[in-house]
Design a protein that fits this description.
Elements lengths: L3 E2 L15 E5 L3 H14 L11 H9 L3 E7 L2 E10 L6 E9 L8 H15 L4 E6 L4 H10 L3 E6 L18 E7 L19 E6 L2 E4 L9 E5 L4 H7 L1 H20 L2 E7 L3 E6 L2
Parallel strand pairs: 1-2, 5-6, 9-11
Antiparallel strand pairs: 2-3, 3-4, 4-5, 6-8, 7-8, 9-10, 11-13, 12-13
Helix pairs in contact: 1-2, 5-6
């Protein structure tokens, strides 16, 4: 059985058809409780400290914002929450998206973002923004390569101390991405034949970050490397993970501030950046 997407045009859900998936908006109080519990599980906190709560989700949904879930039978597997921002009739900020830990890698992330895209287009919304941790390689690959988003800004310690089981004890640096819904879904054409031949301005030497921004002064295109699994590094070597956080802030944040742009992310753990002409 293919994915069921309630009330959404089929164009918006291409690639979201894993067996048994049902994507729909949340309305019932019991659904808001389940969504809050899922978010608490994803971010590894007690439900009382989840980043959303049933009352907030109910209010957002009642006001016409995006509060959706992905179901497998009666089980809630994924949640995505967004709200409108200026210009209010054309732009949505996707505040969070979470997939149950035992369902990661099964296509729920792509399915719920496809549902969100279709919901937005049906309402004339053509721009969706959200933030992600630029050190998490799988999220960078999904956002930049698979969906074709662009990085608009590097936000230093954006949320402050989040204090959850995923982000606790480190700066909450975030990349703000823009998803242009008027362009085709999917990655942009690669700008280089072999990313490994690009000059790196941040790379690993025995897992330690090595930063050399002076290299960028003579380049039109360069590479930034990040660890393949920063989440594991946070658990086993938190001090090393913190050094990568600082180094990436200087590299990615610094080059974006100088007018460079990110053109892609390679699944092996490389950002590709181009100097703006």
């Amino acid at each position: 059985m293919s994915a069921k997407v309630h009330g959404m045009p089929r164009e918006g859900v291409a690639g979201a058809g894993a067996a048994g998936m049902e994507l729909r908006m949340l309305h019932l109080p019991s659904e808001m409780v389940a969504a809050t519990e899922l978010v608490a599980g994803v971010w590894q906190v007690d439900v009382e400290r989840a980043h959303v709560n049933p009352g907030l989700l109910t209010a957002l949904a009642h006001a016409g914002n995006y509060v959706a879930g992905g179901f497998l039978g009666d089980e809630l597997m994924a949640v995505c929450v967004g709200f409108f921002h200026p210009p209010f009739d054309r732009a949505l900020h996707s505040h969070l998206a979470g997939v149950r830990l035992d369902a990661i890698g099964q296509g729920w992330g792509h399915a719920i973002k496809s549902h969100q895209r279709a919901w937005c287009l049906e309402r004339g919304v053509t721009r969706v923004t959200w933030t992600y941790d630029p050190l998490v390689a799988r999220n960078a690959y999904f956002n930049l390569h698979k969906l074709g988003c662009t990085i608009d800004n590097y936000l230093l310690d954006f949320y402050g101390d989040l204090g959850d089981g995923v982000n606790g004890g480190q700066r909450s640096d975030r990349a703000l991405v823009v998803w242009d819904l008027e362009r085709p879904v999917g990655p942009r054409p690669s700008v280089v034949a072999d990313i490994d031949t690009l000059t790196a301005v941040l790379w690993a030497d025995d897992e330690q970050p090595v930063l050399d921004l002076e290299r960028a002064r003579s380049l039109q295109i360069c590479r930034i490397d990040i660890p393949s699994d920063i989440e594991k590094m946070r658990r086993v070597a938190p001090d090393l993970a913190a050094r990568w956080r600082v180094a990436l802030g200087h590299a990615l944040g610094g080059l974006l501030a100088e007018g460079w742009s990110v053109s892609d992310f390679d699944r092996r753990g490389h950002y590709t950046l181009m100097r703006s002409s």
